[in-house]
Amino acid sequence: MIWFVTLIRRLESHPFRAKQKLTSFHKFTTSAPTLPHQLCKTENHLNLLAHRFRRTGPPQRPPCRLPNLDAVFMVLKSAQNAYSLREAALVHGFLVVSGYLPNDVILGAQLVNMYVNGDGLREAIGVFHLLPTKSVFAWNSVLKGLLNHGLFEETLEWYGALLWEGLSPDNFTFPCVFKACSGLSDLQQGREIHHFVCSLRAQQRLDPNPFVECAIIDMYARCGSIGEARSVFEKMMQRDLVCWGVMICGTVQSGRWTDALVLFVRMMSEGLNPDPVVLAMVIPGCGRNGAVELGKSVHGLVVKSGFVNDLCAMNSLIDMYCKCGSTNDAKCLFESMGMKDLVSWSTLIGGHSQNHEHEECLSLYARMNESGITPNSVTIAGLLPTFSSLKMLRKGREIHNFVIRNGFECDRFIGSALVDMYARCGRIKEAEMLFDVLPERDIAVWNSMITGYSLNENAELTFKLLRHLQEVEVNPNSITLLSIIRLCTSLAMVKQGKEIHGYAMRGGFDSTVSVGNSLIDMYSKSGHLELGMKVFKLMKEKNAVTYNTVIGAFGMHGNGNHACLVFHEMLNTNMKPDKVTFVALLSACSHGGMLDQGWLIYNSMTNLYGVVPDMEHYACMVDLLGRSGHLSDAWEFVKKMPVDPDIDVLGSLLSACKLHKDVKLAEHVARKIFDMFPEETGYYVLLSNTYATVGRWDDVTRVRGKIKEKGLIKEPGRSWIQIRGTVHSFLAKDSSNPRFSLMSKALESLLLMMKDEGYIPDLSFSLLEPAYYDSKAATSDKFHHR
Q: Its Gene Ontology biological processes (predicted)?
């Protein structure tokens, strides 16, 4: 036996030469019909072959009958489940020597399948071609092998050859074929094969099969046709957990998180208990949708189903709570976990960072280091936004050094986060240098650089980089468009904003809720409220941010009544208002002079909607009372606040004092501001302007003198205008432009023309002494081009 196996193993890489090399050896076996069945279940099918040879006696005996077909078939059946290529070659050699191959098509088909399961696709195809008759089972085995190797086009070619041979595919053929269509994103081919399946069933040549249906659903979903996938799913007479899982997974992959959660609830209502795979798909959906209550129910299912020790499920729950803004729940879950891995730490660190809880983020990172856990690229990518938000450039550079020392510099996530960090810290040149040296740049890296230019309001470089992005054939995504739309919003670049809107429509991005929200905001802030409302009406899907944006838009345009109507429309859609909703509503009431309605909304926040007022709401109420001229009521409101007022609340009151020329209260409020924030230049200027409204020029000079004494710098006034596609920016007292003299003369000429036409300036709101306007030199100091 030993010499036989040794020789076979030497020849195992060339099984087709086995017969030639072994013809001099006799076959010493009996039929052995009573072989123990349990040998077919052993982990090593070679035991069965060894058992046969032990019963045959010494090699000098004359040849007897070959082993019977059933016994050999049992060997192959036991060997077909993921055994090694070496073992498959050994069995192949045995079958060749025994004379079963190549003539026995049943054993040949089983050997093809055995090679496929042993990752021997080339050998499987070799055996397949030698078979005199090729069964559908043999074809299916090759199709499976091609698919397992990612050879999707070849899979479809072999499927076509199967049809060409006149064979009828079965329910094991089509799952392979549909997966190949998914791999190629070939929706049209998938549709045609689906129609063929339907025609076979209509002819009763193919029975309905849930595995085929799942493959069809998965194919449509992966090819982006979730509607057709849903249609197939709804037509199924019986749906098991696998079918539900495939449909939910496809819905999640298409970005329809709300629909995925609805499907999950339907599945539960039909009495099916989710497995870890379904839960792993649903938990992120709760996070994306902010469905924290449903997420808590899913958390209960995880506990009830005994998956509390499943780190993957627990880490997903932490991520879900963080995405819903419930970082306290995430932290409690984290602390309750008996075992934590690096993913657990990284997820919570990233969650704190995403929710702008930067102190907690840094504290947790310090704890992680104290625990001796080394951060990975995901940890660093989650930590860097905290350094970006806090503008902790030195810490960011330390992390950058850590990245280089540990070989993370090629990681695209890290590269993207570092580019973003440098850009947000105002180091745009360093961001550019890092961007240029990154070996691989995916869309996230490009987006970080585009966002960096956008945040620094550099329209020229933003659009230049966008054109470069298209030249290298990287497709922009919704994040790219959001950055550019926000730039157009901040610079009032309506023309470019409309072009981006058109691009979004052509690329299908206008159906993305976040893009629609940004377009509404851009049009509204650019004075085109009607275009913003048109975008709003055309949106198929809306969220709370959508309604908040529209409410804020109407408020900005002084139309408080329409803002309230949109709020009621929001309530009719069963959408729950949040803190931002009431900030927008109160601001709309303030700009619209709707004092009574504002009080009504403020009082209903906690009583009806469970929203606890914070500083933003207090600031809106002070602004509402102040704009309406009720300064004493505004001051009383501030004194009765349950917390000390912050600078926004006091600043709103100081602005109202300037508007209504209440210098006494302005001085009192200003003293409180300067005690709390002595370095805030803007409020010194606001107090100075308040004095100017009542003509107290000595106090104006005194306050402005304090600004100089303290070494504070007032940010110069800035404006811009777009001419022939180029944005021209203007800064006060900036004479660096080479055409400064020419522009000053042109401005003087315009002012003289206005005076000749009889124009008399209204100086009642002037912040400078009337004598200032008698000097022609003032002209060149007021408007300068950069």
A: RNA modification
